[in-house]
Write a structure and sequence with these properties.
By secondary structure, the chain is of the alpha+beta class. It is built from 20 helices and 26 strands.
Length: 738
């Protein structure tokens, strides 16, 4: 059984990547500015037209909302650079972004490099000599911006288009944008014949630069922006001196440099009061003449303490994310999807309540199981996101093989609780009353792992901010946030297990525990049925039939295993029963694999009517825009069949007669975004609102640029009040913990 459990857990963690699908192709969009709640972007030309065989310059113009920012090619301590993916006519080629000098944005002890306000990112575009004058070249780019404030980061993706005219002769500047783009190009860093060297001595990096425009003048306040992260300690002050030929900066090394030393040249941008230049510093001592004339003036941050200045005396973004993760994990204990596992854990804790040593061991083992599984799931999620996959929290249950494997695992746990077979003991173990679990600390560890796997699809209050922040932080910080979430989930049981006074108040073990053990089997049966239902929604009747066969064979296999255990309890070997049981389990595994390989049916956008509630239609951005254009409010429900909280909200709040009446009175449209199976458009929309999972409820009202985010735990009154009394306060992104 140990091997069987481990195999199923490995399947749950490893089979998801096989379900990955390609990102949708870029679709053309109308020329002109495109916008989200945080940023407006437009593809604009520098010149009025382009001549055949020339190099034209276009730019992605960003107009960034106040208190938000985007990032340079090296974002610094957190964030991500703007990326451009082009779709161009045959023969047209786009070059790299010409990056303007970034701002230094100090936020809560971190240093980021980025932009705020209005920013132009110029790009050279080669026009083929075969381009015909009098025609236009459609240039389309998919721009992905990571737009951040002091509280959260949201990836915004916009598809921009420019129809560039082709004419003969030199073109004048575009009257709207030509001057601004020209200014960016004139001031953009470029090589200027500067000799640069860099050395690591006594834990300090010394960057020396000499010659070219640096010779013979005081450079004034100076700063070095490396092209790669990890080279320098971004928040640390940069000090130094200047001389007749140049300057020498003293810089604290970053984590990568501290770990490996200098392994090659270091490229970056050196900014002084005289200008900004690209340099490539080779390892070695600073050139002669870079000191002796005086000390360098300190370079001031563009935003001395940034939007999070008050974080110096309070919680920074990272500390806030960890705190909210712990609070979210605590509240996760109250979410319905976790009840079956936690009830089993509570009963097992009662079993060892009056053995302080065993209770302490079980509590710490449960904590270890929770934290280990959170790290594994979070690591898989972060790795997939880094590889470009659009996934969110609870991603494993979007995979039919994982859902099917978990359904069988829950069935096996339920049969174990019902006494069909026993883990880690024979009849003597069953008679002594240990709950159906692996023995000792290993059983507590497994229970913690199982709790995380089942709880992962849920999101609780405070989790939205924590998970949204974690997914854009550097991975070590992100894993600490996820560990905070696991600590919150396990904390109540750890506290009880480590507190003898609380343990003494629990009832002593006795016959009641056997009855409780049998009773707790039924929530596990219900969980197995629920997962089978989710699997049927993801796949279809044929795959569900094969899953039923696998479940039947699993039940037969563990029953035969239990018979073998009984035989051994009477002094017989029980080899026949055990062999037959193993064979049945192998057949169950084969049926599971066959069920997982049945092709999933194509999802169709079919409107639905749920109970007495309002009629629903599938969510899409186009549907939202169309309803708002008609002057109608829009209530959007992002849900999934594997999200128990979502289903409870739908049954008790969203599909009630009262909500239906309020929808009719307000002439609102009800749209449902079903995330049961992977849907990259829904994933992107969740990310746009700082979320990594469901549920998410949005209320759009005509005339408001941002939707109102409703609480994750709904009541009929909350929904009706939101529909009938739309509040101008609080529209937009939900505050952390709201």
């Amino acid at each position: 059984m140990n091997l069987f459990v481990r195999v199923l857990i490995l399947l749950a963690l490893c089979m998801w990547p096989a379900q990955a699908v390609a990102q949708p192709a870029v679709q053309s969009t109308a020329a002109g500015p495109q916008r989200t709640e945080r940023i407006e972007a437009e593809l604009v030309p520098m010149s009025a037209w382009a001549a055949p065989g020339s190099t034209a310059v276009v730019a992605v113009k960003q107009t960034i909302r106040a208190d938000w920012h985007t990032y340079w090619r090296n974002p610094g301590d957190s964030g991500g650079a703007t990326t451009l993916t082009w779709v161009l006519p045959q023969g047209v080629r786009a070059g790299d972004i010409v990056w303007p000098v970034p701002e230094r944005q100090r936020i809560s002890g971190l240093m980021n490099y980025g932009y705020s306000g209005v920013v132009y990112l110029p790009v050279p575009v080669e026009i083929p000599a075969s381009a015909r004058p009098g025609t236009t070249l459609p240039l389309t780019v998919r721009a992905l911006f990571l737009v951040c404030s002091a509280e959260m980061c949201v990836p915004d993706e916009l598809t921009l288009r420019l129809d560039l005219p082709v004419r003969e002769g030199a073109a004048p500047l575009d009257p709207r944008h030509g001057g601004s783009i020209t200014a960016v190009l004139e001031n953009a860093p470029r090589p200027a014949g500067i000799e640069a060297r860099i050395a690591l001595e006594d834990g300090v990096l010394t960057l020396g630069a000499a010659g070219g425009p640096l010779a013979g003048r005081d450079p004034g306040p100076s700063y070095f922006f490396p092209f790669e992260g990890g080279i320098i300690d971004h928040p640390a002050a940069q000090t130094g001196a200047w001389g007749p030929q140049g300057l020498a900066l003293r810089v604290q090394p970053g984590g990568e440099t501290q770990a490996t030393g200098l392994t090659g040249p270091v490229g970056g941008v050196l900014v002084t009061a005289q200008g900004a230049w690209e340099i490539r510093a080779e390892p070695g001592a600073a050139p002669a003449g870079t000191t002796g004339s005086g000390a360098l003036a300190a370079a001031a941050d563009a935003t001395p303490e940034g939007p999070g200045a008050e974080a110096g005396t309070g919680l920074g973004i990272f500390a806030q994310a960890v705190l909210f993760a712990i609070l979210g994990g605590l509240i996760l204990n109250l979410m319905p999807c976790v009840f079956p596992i936690l009830a089993m854990k509570a009963a097992s804790l009662a079993a060892s309540a009056h053995d302080v040593r065993h209770a302490r061991r079980d509590g710490l083992a449960f904590l270890a199981g929770v934290l280990t599984t959170f790290v594994l799931l979070a690591g898989a999620l972060l790795a997939l996101r880094a590889a470009g996959e659009a996934v969110g929290w609870g991603f494993q249950l979007q995979s039919p093989p994982v859902t099917a494997g978990l359904a069988l695992l829950m069935l096996a746990v339920a049969l174990n609780l019902s006494g069909v077979f026993h883990v880690g003991g024979g009849l003597q173990g069953a008679g002594s009353g240990p709950l159906a679990r692996l023995p000792g600390g290993l059983g507590a560890f497994f229970t913690g792992a199982l709790a995380v796997i089942v709880a992962a699809p849920c999101t609780a209050p405070f989790m939205a901010f924590a998970l949204g922040a974690a997914l854009v932080m550097p991975w070590p910080m992100a894993l600490l946030v996820f560990l905070g979430l696991g600590l919150g989930l396990a904390l109540p049981f750890v506290v009880v297990s480590l507190t003898p006074g609380l343990l003494a108040r629990l009832p002593r073990p006795g016959p009641w525990m056997e009855r409780l053990k049998g009773l707790l089997a039924f929530p596990m049966y219900a969980t197995a049925l629920w997962l089978a239902w989710v699997f049927s929604r993801q796949t279809g009747a044929e795959a569900l039939g094969l899953l039923f066969v696998a479940g039947l064979l699993l039940a037969l296999g563990v029953w035969l295993t239990g018979c073998g255990q009984a035989e051994r309890g009477f002094g017989r070997r029980g080899v026949l029963h055990l062999t037959a049981g193993v064979a049945a389990l192998l057949l169950a595994g084969a049926a599971l694999i066959m069920a997982a390989r049945v092709p999933a049916p194509e999802a169709g956008p079919v409107a639905s009517v749920q109970g007495a509630g309002p009629a629903s239609a599938p969510w899409s951005a186009t549907a939202v825009e169309a309803a708002l254009a008609e002057g109608r409010p829009v209530l959007v429900n992002f849900t999934a069949d594997w999200c128990v909280t979502c289903k409870i909200n739908e049954r008790t709040s969203l599909t009630s007669a009262g909500v239906k009446a309020a929808m009719e009175r307000s002439n609102a449209v009800y749209l449902v975004g079903d995330w049961t199976r992977r849907d990259d458009a829904i994933t992107a929309e969740l990310q746009r609102h700082g979320r990594s999972g469901v549920p998410l409820y949005l209320l759009y009202t005509p005339g408001s640029s941002e939707p109102r985010v409703l609480p994750q735990l709904l009541t009929e009154g909350v929904v009706v009040d939101a529909l009938m009394k739309p509040s101008p306060v609080g529209r937009g992104l939900e505050r952390p913990g709201a």
